[in-house]
Amino acid sequence: MSASRRRGSLIFPLVVIGVGVVLLLINLGVVSPGVWGELVRFWPILLIALGVDILVGRPSFGAALSTLITVCVLVGLGLAAFYLFGPDTWVSKRQSFAHPLGSATAAHVSLSCEACAISIEGAANPDHLIEGTVTTRRGESLEQTTRPSGEALAFELASNSWLPFSLTASRDQPWNLRLHPTIPIVLDVETDGTIDLDLRSVRAESIDVSAGRRACVIVLPRSGRTILRLSGDDVAIRVPDGGGVRILGNPSGLLATTGDYVAIDGGLQSPDYDTAEAKADLHVRPGLVDLDIAPLEETPLSEPEAT
Prior knowledge:
The chain is of the alpha/beta class. It is 21% helix and 43% strand. It has helices at residues 11-27, 35-39, 44-55, 61-85, 88-91, and strands at 92-100, 106-112, 116-123, 128-137, 140-149, 152-161, 173-179, 185-191, 195-198, 204-211, 215-219, 224-239, 243-248, 255-256, 262-264, 267-269, 278-295. The protein is elongated.
C-alpha cells in the first residue's frame, strides 16, 4: 500500500452518526421532531467540517482522530448556539397546570429551578392550591411532588436538566403562578433568575427566598403575620397600606428604607409595626447584599384566569 494514499473521507460517516443521534433523541422525547427545521440552519458546519477533513486528510490514525475531535467540537458549538440563540418556539415549551387543593387546610409550597423567572400574581381558583403556566427548555424536565402532612399538603415544583452545564443562563424561562388565597401557606422559592412575588392576596405565613444576582421583588401580604428569610444580591420589599415591617439583621451591602424606621434590638422596625394590620419580620441571612424596603404603589390585582 502506498504511503501517500489518502484515507476515505470521514464526513459521510459522521453525518450518518449525527442523523442517528438526532433520531434517537426524538424517539426518547428529548427534542421535538420539528428540530430538523432548525438544524438545517446550521448546514455551513458541514462545509467547515469538509474543509478540515481535506486539510488533515493524511493516511494516519492521528489525522483521522484529529478530524473526528474537530468535527465533534464544531457540532457541539453548533448545538450550544442552537440552545442559546434558537427561537423560543423551538428550544422551549410552555405548559399549563393546576394542582387541586383537596381537603388540605394548609400547605407548604416549594418552587425551585436553575434559570427561570418565577412570578406569583393574583389568586388561584379556590379549588386549586396552585395553578399557572411554566416554560421549560428542551432537555429540561419538570417534576411535581406532593405528599400529605396531616391536614397540610406539601407541594414541590422543580426543574431538572440533563445537560452537564447550563445553556439557559441568557434567558429566564417564565413561571407564571397563582396561589390559593385563604389557606395558610409556607412558601420556599429558589432560582438564579428573576423573582417577582405579589403576595397581597395570599395568606403567606412564612416565606423563604434564595435569590441569585437577578432582581427580586416581593410584595407583602395585606393581612396576618409573615416571617421572611431572605438571601440574594438585589432584594426589594414593597409594603401595602397598613403594613408594618421589622428588619432583623443587616445586609452586607446597602439597606434602603424610608427615613422613619426606628432602631430596635438587633435591627430596625417601622413606627407603625405594633399597630399594623399586617406584620412582616424580615430575617436577613448571610448572602443578602442589597435590601430596599418602600411603600407599595398600589395597582389593581390581576383577576384569576378561568379554568
